[in-house]
Amino acid sequence: MKRLAWPAGILAALLLVNLIFTDHFFQIEIKDGHLYGSLIDIFRFGAPLILVALGMTLVIATRGIDLSVGSVVAITGAMACLEISTLSSQDSIGGVLGAIGIALGLAVALGVGNGFLVAIVGIQPIIATLILMVAGRGLAQLITDGQIITINSDPYKLIGGGYWLTLPFSIIIVAVVLALMAFVTRRLALGLLIESVGGNAEASRLSGIRSHGLLIVVYAFCALCAGVAGLMISSNVSSADGNNAGLWIELDAILAVVIGGTSLAGGRFSLGGTVLGALIIQTLTTTIYSIGVPPETTLLFKALVVTIVCLLQSPAFRAKVFRSRRKPAPPTVPAGEKVTVRT
Amino acid sequence: MAEAILRMTGIGKEFPGVRALDGVDFRLLPGEVHALMGENGAGKSTLIKVLTGVYSIDSGEIELAGDRVAFAGPLEAQKAGISTVYQEVNLCRNLSVAENVFIGREPRKFGRIKWGEMRRRTTALLRQLDLPIDVSKPLSHYSLAIQQMVAIARAIDIDARVLILDEPTSSLDAGEVAQLFRVMRRLKEQGIAILFVSHFLDQIYEIADRMTILRNGRLVGEYVTAELPQVELVGKMIGRELAELERLDERPPARTSDPLVEATDLGGRVAPFSLTIHEGEVVGLAGLLGSGRTEIARLLFGADHAASGTLRIGGDQVTLRTPRGAMARGVAFCSENRREEGLVPELTVRENLILALQARRGWSRPVPRKKQDELVAKYIKALNIRPDNPEMLIRNLSGGNQQKVLLARWLILEPRLLILDEPTRGIDVGAKAEIQKLVVELSDGGMAVLFISAELDEVLRLSHKVAVLRDRRLVAELPNDDTLTTDVLMETIASGGAK
Ligand SMILES: Nc1ncnc2c1ncn2[C@@H]1O[C@H](COP(=O)(O)OP(=O)(O)OP(=O)(O)O)[C@@H](O)[C@H]1O
Ligand SMILES: [Mg+2]
């Protein structure tokens, strides 16, 4: 829990900044039986990022990385919209479910492909997933035939833009996925096995862990999360854009994971931290709009804040800053640091 | 007495929840070999690390040749003339042997590295240690023992006033140890001060002039080796008399039972060999470094694939493709290579301990937390793992205590065949006796054990029979009767079994 203190604090600080610029920022009200408010919006618009980041967390915990999630987002959105556009009635629930099934099935298959390249062929994760990152955009455009597919399907619109029991449906999806993941990784033993493979793959193999299978499952799951996020994004705008859907989401997702306290070196991961990390990034985007940062500087502004957040997150940085304040003692290497003997 | 080259006074170091060093004084004289003694977790490695700047000290001061120093890191210490081999060999496994020896101080001409000279000098250096290996191969190509020798070679080549060796001999055989001691004596004559850590008391008495004993992070005292009998040394280290040090009773012959493991012409990275292990039998593997002991173990565990021959376990013919497959047949293997093949450093003691058990059950059947706590508490007690906090990250344990956790990981499985590759590596005298007793108990209970150790004494004490290897070939199988002594074993190893 202590590990979550920093990201939680940063998120709180960001939210408070918004309060200065936006009146009633923390206000949540019920209109027409739906929850409304800026906080709800952050959750709602952040839902795809949270999902992608959650899947990414497991991949990173195995000391991997998945650059292809953005492409998977585009592919699933395109696939689902294409299938729905061919339905005789776009409001037929069965037809929409079928389309969703096909799209998500495709996502999982792509994830299995990633996992296969990493685990069986032994390609470095960053390269293995780079292949799909690049090729996937092409595939998405192939599916949409280079056009933007527009649909008009109420059942499909529910995923990204609808409400259920007063809550935005996308938030419910995220909550369910998060609960499932928490159960499987922490109540069951999957989390330990993932952390072990990420911490020391050879030792894990010699301890009897089926690391190949585990890697494939993890990459497949990550792609599935990206797939659901792709459905949300395309459902929200009722169209599929093979070019721009999910563009750069892999970078935001990786950032969210790291801000949440999961190390890129693999091993320990924190689902709660990732959710906080994704919310920080989403809040930051909201903040940029609400405080009126000039559009041409938004990227720089974002980079600046992210840098500060990452520095605050780093124990080594904190140790240095706080120690040098306390006493100008002889310089030291932080206790946890690895000793490398070099001349 | 000469002026001390190194003087540490009142050194204190605290880690969260652990007082690793508490007011420790230490002096090192030029031209002496000084042994730092103490149980696992006594604070030996920590004292070395605060000296070389890996950790900062909380209190106390360090003087090198009369000047007060506080190094910011190992590199700075090395520049000041302190050359160190740390307990966990820390070289770059993907670089060549020569690159590892010269990394950071490569011979250069006009800024360009002189590769040829580097290789030549490394070869010459290693020949001093009687290690004729190809120095252009990556380090990972060689066994742990050779890696350890390379680390030592690197350290003695650096022009230093102080040489620190933290358990350099833990995976070496008698031959390499002799080479190392020869070099150490030569350096000593040149006036270099050597700090030496080892759990092998014989080695201490052979090489050390004086010793400093630590217990629980506190200084017990400083002694001249020749004036401190071994029994007293042990008493001072563990704070009580050690009864278990006596030889174990003569092993009763293994119960004549069905063979559990039958390897016939099994080959891979070793020449095809045949070996039978019965239930309740302890089979020792003896041989020099690189003789193929670990390779046999890995074949029987499915970590490597057999290229020829057949293997029967419990009467069934099996082809082992993965360690998991071997585990399903009741085989367990505790690797000698703690860092690469054992520890998951970021996980806790508890998680490391139950890892193999959990892997065998699969992800969907977690070991209930209560059961975990019971098991962990049981083995922390049985093997005297310290500190006895199961939620501590294993990387923060001392080397010997990490080893005990890994041993427990496999004991928990209650395997039918337990393969132990250097299980007492880096383990102190008290715990070593405990582990040997445990092996005897387990085999009396019907477990078959394949026991690999560079210490022939230990092999002889525990085994019913000893298989001797030389140059990756099994050359002899000797029943452990009254006539078998370490000398006979040495001779067999040297002659390659030819009579
Ligand atoms: N980075 C760390 N964080 C927390 N505790 C540590 C750390 N490093 C060492 N310790 C603790 O300090 C104590 C001394 O450890 P140290 O490694 O110095 O023992 P040692 O005498 O070298 O033992 P061994 O013979 O097993 O190598 C141990 O209790 C250990 O758990
Ligand atoms: Mg040590």
From TrEMBL, chain A:
The chain crosses the membrane at residues 38-60, 67-87, 93-119, 126-143, 163-184, 214-233, 245-264, 271-293, 299-317. InterPro entries: ABC_transp_permease. GO terms for cellular component: plasma membrane. GO terms for molecular function: transmembrane transporter activity. It holds the Pfam family BPD_transp_2. The keyword Thylakoid does not apply. Its main location: membrane. It is a multi-pass membrane protein. Keywords: Cell membrane, Membrane, Transmembrane, Transmembrane helix. It is found in: Cell membrane. This is ABC transporter permease. It comes from Herbidospora galbida.
UniProtKB/TrEMBL annotation, chain B:
It is a peripheral membrane protein. One of its GO terms (cellular component) is plasma membrane. InterPro entries: AAA+_ATPase, ABC_carbohydrate_import_ATPase, ABC_transporter-like_ATP-bd, ABC_transporter-like_CS, P-loop_NTPase. Residues 6-241, 254-496 form the ABC transporter domain. One of its GO terms (molecular function) is ATP hydrolysis activity. It comes from the Bacteria. It is found in: Cell membrane. It comes from Herbidospora galbida. Keywords: ATP-binding, Cell membrane, Membrane, Nucleotide-binding, Repeat, Translocase, Transport. Transmembrane segments: none annotated. This is Sugar ABC transporter ATP-binding protein.
